[in-house]
User: Fold this.
Amino acid sequence: MKNKKLIFVVIGLLIALSVNTWAETKKIDQMGRYPFARVKGKVPTQDVMKMLVTRYASDLKYGFEQAGYPDLYEPFLAQLNAASFTEKSLPVGTIFPWMLFRSKGKVQVIKDVEWAGKAPLDVYSFTVTKDYKNYEFVMPRPCGNVALLNVVEAIPPAVCDLKVSPAKVNVNDAVNIDMSGSQFATSMEVAIYDGAGSLVATEALTPANPKWQTKFDKPGDYTLKAKVANQRGDVTGPGCEFKIHVNLPPVCKLSITCTDCKDFVGKPIVFDASASNDPDGQIVKANFEVTDAKGAVIDSFMDTEAPFTWEKIFDAPGNYTVTVTVFDDMGVAAGGAEPCRIPFAVTQKKLFFLAEGGLGLLRGTYTGVVWARLGILYKIVPDSLDFILSFGPGIPVTGAPWTMFVMGNALLNVHAGPAFVAGGLGFSTKDQETRKGGIDAVGQVGVELFKGANSSVGSIFGELRAPIITSGRSFDENHKLLLGFRYIF
Assistant:
């Protein structure tokens, strides 16, 4: 009995010398004194180490249970034979979560043990995988102890990477979504939310197909939220986000000088699109177009600078429509409907005053005469046919037998571009005391020199006045040749 007690005391002293405990960590400075399995030879091979573990499988199972890792035993045993051993030298200070050893023939477990030897510890290292974790075990040489060195995730967390281009698009433009930069992901998903936070669409992606192209059919702000998962199916982190803006169309506004443009032939009419605006950009150009009553385009104008107005003079009356289309800096157009299409009517002034005068010759002796007339002009068919009514005095440049007289005209004036021909009846009072007044046939040929504001016109013309054959008034003695200037206003 005394010898047995002595043996127990010695064993206890040896354990106390080899394992020192401070706080919760035990230190061991020798290896091989209490081997889990006895190893023959100083440098055993990997096969020998594997054979030892297999031979003591039941003890190993008991040890795993005592260590608190019963579920790890079967994967350990199953993967051991196929495992690839790595030779390592662990530095002094290496801590093992637990180690199996044998004392008095029984398997023991020591936890939180630190290698405190004088030199690095030579070990065989191998890895067992279970539940997406890698457990690294070591077996010190030459003893057959089994120790857990560390535990790491076999599958690292998935990392989300979301790229979207472009960041601003028009309606129905292609948007490219790319998650190919995500790491360690086996599944991916992109969700699209509108500005109100409502879900618009989702798309499942994979590492083999990490790209998606989509379109937006409504303008506004959208948020793309992506998430990724690894083989464990865990979604890692909050995912990643990207904001995209779908361009809002410009707002077209058009005003016009008048819609019932009375007497506006020859006057400027202003089409004004300056009030147009773009809610998320700027207007860069405006295209104006004028069509006639049949819908045919008669004129157009592209304005690329603010304030986007067009001033146009109409040479003919009629019913017209002006249309403006404005473009924003993304190339989106707006226009074509009210209020950007406005019908309007242009009418032409028909009744004008006129003043005319000039020089002439009075037949008899072809005496010179200065003359002037006032009157009115009525456009029967604008720019084609006019009616002229005028009268005024003629003053011969010599005295008796010539005397001042009055003449008047009622003419139809026919246009051919700027040229015109007029004809009709007139009257002349007596131009000599011994002559009689009477009805004249009047003819004119002339040409327009200019057109001014408010449809005013200046022209020159020649006039022949021939008496209608009556008693005492012959053509030879009573015709008149006049050269004059006419101003219509």
In short: The radius of gyration is 56 Å.
